[in-house]
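I am still learning, so can you show me any protein sequence you like together with the matching structure tokens, please?
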Amino acid sequence: QTVLQGIILLPLRAICITFILLLAWLSASIATFCQPGRGFQPLEGWRRRMIQTTLSSLTRTAYFVMGFQVKVKGKVASLLEAPIFVAAPHSSFFDAIICALTGMPSIVSRAENLSTPVFGTILRSLQPVAVSRQDPDSRKNTVAEITRRALSRGQWPQVI
């Protein structure tokens, strides 16, 4: 009986997750379309709210479809309380749960990730701090960018 359930549930879950991923890509594309200051200025107004609400909801829904339910105990620190949010060790796809639960903050990511199809568009909408592994000054530049965003007094989203 469990094999039969797996045969039915696996394709349904795959279809649902694909649909959710395409909705996330569409939302990210709309929010970043003709974005002023592309990546150098923070998203504001409806663009920022759209990313925070839509992508957060879609990510939670995708994890629910995969069979995960996450409950938060306590209160998530606000942007002004904690401009930098540390999550470690970040080594799996479960990191997206933390992003969804904290309102889709900016993340620190490899620059190469921004060019991947579909996921790159979604990632770019989070306004990541891109780390280039080829640049010898990358570490210094990343620390400077994180510091600049942390000291922006709420203009930039939290950095995770």
